[in-house]
Structures are given as structure tokens and as C-alpha cells.
Amino acid sequence: MLLKPPPTAIGPASFAAMNSRSLSLKRFAVLALSASALVLVACGADPGSSRAGSSSAAAAGTEPSTSAATGSGGGMWKPKPTTRPWQFQLQGRIDMSIKAPVYEVDGFDVSANTVRKLHQKGRKVICYIDAGSWEQYRPDKDQFPKSVIGRKYEGYPNERWLDIRKYRKFAKPLKNRIRMCARKGFDGLEPDNLAGYQNRTGFPLTAKDQLRFNRWIARQAHKAGLSVALKNDPSQARQLVRNFDYAVVEQCFQYNECGRFKPFIRAGKAVFSVEYETPNPKFCGKAKKLRFSAIGKEYDLFANPWRPCHGTG
User: Fold this and answer.
1) Where are the chain's structural domains?
2) Alpha carbons within 13 A on the beta-carbon side of 112
3) Which helix (H) or strand (E) holds 265?
4) At what angle do helices 207-223 and 171-183 cross, to 10 degrees?
5) Which CATH code, of 3.20.20.70, 3.40.50.300, 3.90.180.10, 2.60.40.730, is assigned to 7-308?
6) Residue 206: which pLDDT band, with cuts at 50, 70 and 90?
7) pTM of the entire structure?
């Protein structure tokens, strides 16, 4: 079943209040888990599926690892600015036929075998995890103390903001998630919800708190051998460009925030952007001028539709 975001999550007023605007599948996944589980039982868990039941294996540390955290046997992957389109898929069987040099997929649900197959096709693979909020449906949910779990993420009752001022109290599960991504052979990490300070979290978070947490996350990724993306947080992009290796940006053309990420391009670092509501003709030309890798997707982030802005370099 296709799961659309609730109106409270995507209306203009809500978006203005939710600067991070990470309206991807993880919001909808908890509603689909039961149905997905039935399909998997009937059909068998496919290693190319992002709902292949690998979460438990990953949490238990039994997920088979690849030979190198970078997936290439070389140094850490640090993508340069490019206009070639990327792929962002967090739901359904991973479609490896999409002609994109970079894929972003769910870190818990995609297997090491799938990552390996994408590498064999010449793709680089980014590992999606949540960092700034708590998800009720993740296998490590009980490792987060109740004292750091705050208000519900607007429109999504199964997700709550975390008190990033006290990130040491939940550092262990976050480090384990990052190690999981490295063990599976991912090339990079995309930690979501890195702008809690601009949202109603239930905690008096400040910009300084956010910078401290975001830089800590970046250091943990680098220690694990993974490059790391700044997810949204346009207001702090200039301050964080030295700490992050590239940026993953949602709806910056719709909300006129793309210019905030020019420091990444000037520093020789890629910006991967996605639009959910704006038609391609209204942003592809702008993306090319900015040297962004840009695509159009639906909020549920299945493999398709995939609406690339075609670029050459």
C-alpha cells in the first residue's frame, strides 16, 4: 500500500516549523511493517529488499561484513561536485537498474550482500540512519534512555526527538549504528534529523548544542572509515562544511535554501538534492548552475518514480 504523509506533516506551515523536513520513508515504515512482514513471509526475504528483515541480524551483530568499509578497497570516498543524478530509496526491493552512480538506502534494512552487489555495478552506497530522533520501530529502541526522548515528531506518532545536549547517554546505540554501516561495506553515512534546535523537541536546544552534536556524529563516522553527509540544517552549513564531506538536502529549491549549501560546492564537496513537490523543469536548470546532483521523488521513497536531472559531470 502506498503511504502518503499526513497533511500536518507537509503543509507549508508545518514545513516552516520543521526546518529539517526529513519526510522520508522511515516516517511511513512503521505503518507498513506488518504488511511488509506478511509479504516477506509469503515470498521469502530477498537480500535486495530494504525490508528484508536484516534489522535483527544487524542489531545482533550477525550481519556478514565486507572486506573494506569504503567498499572499494581504497581510501575514504569523498564525492566531488557533480550534476549526475543520484538515487534515494528507503522502501521496497532495491532496484539496481537505476542508472545512478550514488545510491542512498536504509542502513538497518539493506543487507551487506545488497551493498556488495551495488558495488559490483560501480555504485557508491550511502547508509541512512536516524541520529537526532528516536524511532519506535528500530531494534535498538530500548537502548535510548527515556530521559532523552522528547516530543513527538510532528505528524509521526512513532518518532520522537532526542535531547542532543545529553548525547553521551545514547552514544552507544548511535556508534553501533555507524559501525553496522561500516561492517556492511557502505561508503558513506547520512545521519538524519540534524536540526532539532529549530524544532519543538521538548528540550531547550540551542544552535551551539546542535553544532556540538553534529560535529560529534561526523567524527564517529570518520572513525569508522565512512564519509559523512550533512543532512539539511542550512542555517549551519557554512559552519559545518569543514566537518562534513558532502550534503544531502531536501526541498531546498522549493524553500529557497539551496544557496546556503554553496560553501560545500566551493570546498569541492558534492551536494545531493531531492525535491518532492516541485516539478523538474522548475529546478533542474538551477541545479545544473549550482553543480548539484538533483532528482525528483515521491515522499514514500520507493525506487520509482525516479525523476533525474540529467547531468554529465
Assistant:
1) 7-308
2) 20
3) helix 262-266
4) 40
5) 3.20.20.70
6) very high
7) 0.82
